[in-house]
Every structure is written in structure tokens, then in C-alpha cells.
Amino acid sequence: MTVISSLAARPLSAILVRLADLGVIPAAAAHLDHEAAAESLRASLLAEIEAFALSANPDILPAVDQHVREHAMEIARLCGGGAVSDFAFVRDHAERRTEQHFPLEVLLHAYRLGHRVFSQWLRQGAIAAHPPHPEQAVAAVADFAIEYTNVISIIAASHYVARSRALAEAEGDRRTELLSLLLTGYDESDGRVAGLLRRAGYLDQRQAYCVVAVQPTNLAEMDNPERSVRIIAAITRALAASSIRVLAGVRGGAVIAIASDRRRQSGWTAPDQSLAARLLDHLALLGPVVLVGLSGDHPSTAYLPRAHAEALTALDLASVDNRVVAFARLPVRSLLIHRGGEQVRAAPPAWAPALVAADPTLLETLRAIAKADMNVHEAARLLGKHPNTLYARLERIAAITGLNGRHYGDLTEMLLAADCLSG
């Protein structure tokens, strides 16, 4: 017997002693038809609790039949002088209902309804036993029905919750393993891995895959596990009305979600709209307190490590002004600076730091010339300056760098180096 059931059963054992002193036990047992009581309770449950009748699970109604019989037999046994048991049948029933995702509140509602049916049944049995003090006997029977319902409710709830936690932990472990396999890559010859992915539905060749990376605008919030849980819940809610499937977890200080959906209905049909394009609208619903990076579409799980890297790159380039960034829509210039910026900062060209540190109008001039397609007069118009002013600045730039700002290659070199150093 568990600690919970032992503590809960003490008042029940005391009432059984009291019923024996009043002459109800074991005499009442001869007047208790447990089959009739079970049938009466079953009819009441189906009539008053819609969840039993509406359940699509074919095991629910047979389980109800068995469980009401077990309770009627247990009560009849106790009224015949039997000792309080460990109520293993209550524990087993609660754990099975947990595994079937049957609501706990419905289970406890059924026990409350059972209290009403069984108390009437026990009252009739007690009166039929002709105890010497009928009023006291009826009161004791009412107390017994209350305590019996308390015991089974406590046991059922505790085991339901414990089993739910165990299942949630197991599912969390499975999701973590699956997420790790998909994002880090796997050996396709590994039969165990292939079986895990197949059972999870990730080997369908008609699927398209994207990776989403999300962080709060305040990165320190990721130190709080509850914040990560809320972000995952928000992603799930944002996609709930769509057919897009999500597998999410926390990796490397960000919430990472693998999104998948059918790329096409069959091998003969045209591909559906880009998954990444569809995701953008949904991800915009996450609100202003998170930054989001989204990979491009990929045709199989083998590409997910690449998609993961794309999502992280897009996340790095997200900002408060541009919260949701799609990798496929990033300018080539932004990708070049992101990928090579660190190397340039570590070993910049000799002239680059001097150019960045010089008069800011020099870089302003170079950007205007680039915007004007190398036309100095148009650049001067954009800046509101005389062309001779820009020619003078170009001479200063040449003195600092040795490069000609009117040549495409030199202009590109200077602007890329300046952007890397200021990034």
C-alpha cells in the first residue's frame, strides 16, 4: 500500500470498525447485490457524463464496465468484514486513463456520481440487516460512502498525476533525442535511428522542412526555463490552425523548432506554396518581444543541419526593427558581411581602420557614389553638395587607402571592409 493510500485509508478503517460495532458488518453483505449496483452506476454514468458516450476510444466503455464492477465487489467485500486493501485496481485504472489522455476531471466526476449511487445501495443493505440502532447505522454508512470516495479519489488523482509526469518526461526525452538527431545529422545506415524517424513520420519524401530559431529581445531571459517553455507554447499556438507540424526544444541558448508539412500531395502534383513563406505570416504573431530567424525550404531531414545553420544566421541578423528574418530573403551583402566579418575584424586591410576612423563624410560619400551607380554628379545631388566637394573627398580617400572610389572594385572593397569593421 502506498503512503498516500495508507494515510487516506485510516478514517475508512475506523468507520469499518464502527459499522461492525453497530452490527452492520458483516450482516449487510448478504443483502448487497454488487452486480445490480454496478449496473445502476454504469447506467447513471452513461446518462449523466457525456464524455463516456462521446469518447472515440473503443476501450473506454469496457473499462467503465469493469471498473464499476470492481468498486461494487470491493465495497461488498469490505461490508462482509474484509480489511482495507491497497486499491490496486483504482491505481491501474487511473494510469490506463492517463495513457489514453482521458480527462482526470471526468474520472473524479464519475467517482462523485458513484458516491451517490453506492450510498443509496449501502443504506438499503444496512437497513435490511436490521441493526439494533438503525439511525446510527445509516449515519455510519453515509460516512463510509464519503470516506470510500475520498480514498479512491486521492489514489486515482495521485497516480494519474504521477503517470502524467512520467509520460511527459519520457516524451520530453524522446523529443530531445529526435531534435538532436535531426539537427546534428545522422547515419542513414543506423537502423535504430531510421526506425525512430520513421515512427515519428520524418521519412516521408513528400515533406518540406524548415528550421525556426527564436530568442527573446532580452537574451538574459533565456536563463529562465519558463521563458523557453512560453516561447515554445507561443510557436505551437501560432501554428495550431495550420497543417504545419512542429518539433521544438532548446539548443544553444535559443528555442529551435523544426517545422514540416507536405511539399506536394503526390509525385504527380505541383509543389505547394513555400513552407518558409507560409511560416512568415504565422511567426509574425509571436509579438515584439522575440527575434526570429527562419531557414529556407529543404526537401528532406538530411538537410536539417544546413537549415539549422541558416536559421541561426537569420536570427543573428534579426533586430528590433526587423524581428522576423527569412534566410532566403537576406541580401548577399548581408551574408558576406555576417560570414566574413569576424575574419576581417581579426585581420583588416592596413588602410581600413584609418578610413573608418577618418571624417565620417568620407564613407558617406562612398555610399552615395555606390547608390548613384558610380555617377559622382548624381551622388553630389543626393548629398546636396557640389561635385567638386566629392572629388576633393575622393582624393582624401585615395590618400588614406590608396584606392580609387570611382572604380567599382575599389569602391566595393572599401565599403565591405568598413561594414565589417563597424558590424
Whole-number tally of structural domains: 3
The pLDDT mean sits at 87
- How do the SSEs run, as a string of H and E? HHHHHHHHEHEEHEHEHHHHHH
Which percent range describes the beta-strand content? 5-15%
Number of strands: 5
Cα distance, first to last residue?
A: 66 Å
List segments where confidence is low: pLDDT < 50 over at least 5 consecutive residues: none
Helix content: 55-70%
Largest sheet: 5 strands, mixed
Structure in words:
This protein is of the alpha+beta class and 423 residues long. The protein folds into three domains: 3-166; 204-330, Reverse transcriptase/Diguanylate cyclase domain (Alpha-Beta Plaits, 2-Layer Sandwich); 334-422, Arc Repressor Mutant, subunit A (Orthogonal Bundle), CATH 1.10.10.2840. 62% of the residues lie in helices and 8% in strands. It contains 17 helices and five strands. Strands 2-3-1-4-5 form a five-stranded mixed sheet, with helices on both faces. It is rod-shaped and about 120 Å long. The relative contact order is 0.07.
